[in-house]
Write a structure and sequence with these properties.
Blueprint lengths: L1 H21 L2 E2 L8 E11 L7 E5 L2 E12 L10 E8 L5 E8 L4 H103 L4
Parallel strand pairs: 4-6
Antiparallel strand pairs: 1-2, 2-3, 2-5, 3-4, 5-6
Helix pairs in contact: 1-2
Length: 213
């Protein structure tokens, strides 16, 4: 029974440490009034006699007032004691202690273990988020590269289409111009033949007019 109770206590402490590390500020149970901060810490300084005034617990300054409740079953709430603090967060951000509960000596080690587990879990979670961000960044980069490749391919296709259109136009123009060129060649050939015929006739006439000796 003692072992079961110890394990239950350990589980409660670990859960409290995880909740405190993950989200230390919480609204009141009714949803009204100031927010509350619940955490474990060592009493680092306090007024002489441990009464009303400004306390330093777990690296935070907490104001103890007349209505603050002390539970000192495991010892006095004094410098060096390990306590659970339930404080109200006032509008100016200061803490006002509602409860200071002194914890057993072994709770310090248990809470440190719980905080270590919580920090490791938070670190792993942060690492997972960073990995997801890296994957998303790589995916975006790959998409950008694919878009640039597609744009380049479209430009190549447009260039090839333009070159094909130009070649087709030139071929059609050559086909249209071919009959004209043939006519020009025939005309030039006919002119050359006429010139040759005229020269032959001229030479024959000249020989006929020339008297024989």
């Amino acid at each position: 029974m003692t072992r079961s109770r110890w394990l239950l206590t350990l589980g409660l402490v670990l859960a409290t440490c995880l909740a405190t590390l993950g989200a230390p500020l919480a609204a009141s149970a009714s949803g009204k009034g100031p927010a509350r901060l619940v955490y474990f810490g060592e009493v680092e300084s306090c007024p002489e006699g441990g009464g009303v005034g400004l306390w330093s617990i777990g690296g935070r300054e907490v104001t103890v007032v007349e209505s603050t409740r002390f539970v000192e079953t495991w010892g006095e709430a004094d410098v060096g004691a390990y306590v659970l603090v339930n404080a109200r967060v006032l509008e100016d951000g200061t803490l006002e202690a509602a409860l200071i509960h002194v914890q057993p000596p072994f709770f310090r080690a248990i809470c440190r273990f719980g905080q270590t587990v919580a920090q490791r879990a938070a670190f792993r979670q942060q690492g997972g988020i960073q990995s997801q961000e890296r994957i998303q960044t790589q995916t975006r980069d790959q998409l950008h590269v694919q878009e640039r490749i597609q744009i380049h391919l479209r430009l190549q296709d447009q260039t090839c289409s333009q070159e094909q259109d130009q070649a087709r136009t030139q071929s059609q123009q050559q086909l249209r111009d071919q009959p004209c060129l043939q006519d020009q060649v025939r005309t030039q050939t006919q002119q050359l033949q006429d010139q040759a015929r005229s020269m032959t006739q001229g030479a024959a006439s000249l020989q006929a007019r020339t008297p024989s000796r």
